[in-house]
């Protein structure tokens, strides 16, 4: 009986490692999508934007694969307590990554529209800096998951405040441009939606970090996501 238990445990670990490998692959694709989408916006590169949109299919497929394998693992191995918590956390992480991929795709779609409008001075580089910060947050959150590192996860949560400030500054900047010249309104609205999408990516990276804290300590932080943000629909989420 003891040997059977050890065999079940080792089989569970092997299956979980395979799922975690998919999560890390998915994370790498999402990080690349955020980087490429921001670069396409700044360089007004329609081909690179299209590449981002196409790459989102692989991210969606990986989410399906993770959920399917996680469900199979639960059905086959009947994990309990901490093992079950680990599997459910993996599923939540894949959902957060998939949403980030969707936002990157939406950024790329809007780039295709913005190339036909006159550029708003300084906007694209600012958005790219914001995207780079979110990309780094996402990488840190996934590293925290692999290492079960709570301090690393808390750093992600702290950096999300910086992303929120960057978004608020951009929002005020776009308002100024729109008031100065009505011809800027359409482009600034697209840029605002892009900035909001990136801010939401930061929220999803933070959600992953909070799942790491839950996995490690058994408790979610009191101020865990969602933040109660009611503007996500207005930020072009309907285009995802």
Structural class: mainly alpha
Task: State the helical fraction.
Answer: over 70%
Shape: elongated
Q: How big is the Rg?
A: 20 Å
CATH superfamily: Phosphate transport system protein phou homolog 2, domain 2
Number of helices: 6
Report the portion of residues in β strands: under 5%
Q: What CATH architecture would you give? A: Up-down Bundle
Question: Could you name the CATH class?
Answer: Mainly Alpha
The main β sheet shows up as: none
How many distinct folded domains?
A: 1
Low-confidence segments, given as residue ranges, are 228-238
> In sequence order, what are the helices and strands, one letter per element?
HHHHHH
Q: What's the CATH topology label?
A: Methane Monooxygenase Hydroxylase, Chain G, domain 1
How far apart the termini lie comes to 50 Å
Work out the number of β strands.
0
Q: What is the residue-mean pLDDT, rounded to a whole number?
A: 90
Could you characterize the architecture of this molecule?
By secondary structure, the chain is mostly helical. It has one domain (5-229): Up-down Bundle (Methane Monooxygenase Hydroxylase, Chain G, domain 1), CATH 1.20.58. The chain has 6 helices and no strands. It has helices at 2-43, 46-77, 81-114, 123-147, 150-180, 185-217. The longest helix has 42 residues, at 2-43. 40% of the residues are buried.
């Amino acid at each position: 009986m003891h040997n059977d238990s050890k065999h079940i445990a080792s089989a569970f670990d092997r299956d979980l490692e395979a799922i975690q490998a998919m999560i890390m692959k998915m994370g790498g694709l999402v990080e690349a999508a955020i980087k490429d989408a921001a670069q396409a916006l700044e360089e007004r590169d329609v081909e690179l934007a299209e590449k981002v949109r196409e790459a989102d299919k692989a991210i969606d497929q990986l989410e399906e694969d993770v959920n399917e394998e996680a469900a199979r693992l639960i059905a086959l191995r009947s994990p309990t307590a901490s093992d079950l918590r680990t599997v459910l956390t993996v599923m939540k992480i894949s959902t957060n990554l998939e949403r980030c991929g969707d936002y990157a795709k939406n950024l790329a779609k809007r780039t295709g529209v913005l190339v036909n409008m006159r550029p708003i001075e300084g906007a694209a580089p600012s958005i790219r800096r914001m995207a780079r910060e979110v990309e780094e947050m996402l990488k840190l959150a996934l590293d925290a998951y692999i290492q079960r590192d709570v301090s690393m996860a808390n750093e992600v949560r702290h950096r999300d405040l910086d992303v929120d400030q960057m978004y608020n500054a951009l929002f005020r900047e776009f308002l100024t441009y729109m008031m100065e010249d009505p011809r800027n309104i359409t482009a600034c609205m697209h840029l605002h939606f892009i900035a909001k999408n990136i801010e939401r990516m930061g929220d999803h990276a933070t959600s992953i970090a909070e799942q790491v804290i839950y996995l490690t300590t058994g408790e979610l932080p009191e101020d865990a996501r969602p933040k109660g943000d009611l503007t996500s629909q207005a930020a072009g989420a309907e285009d995802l």
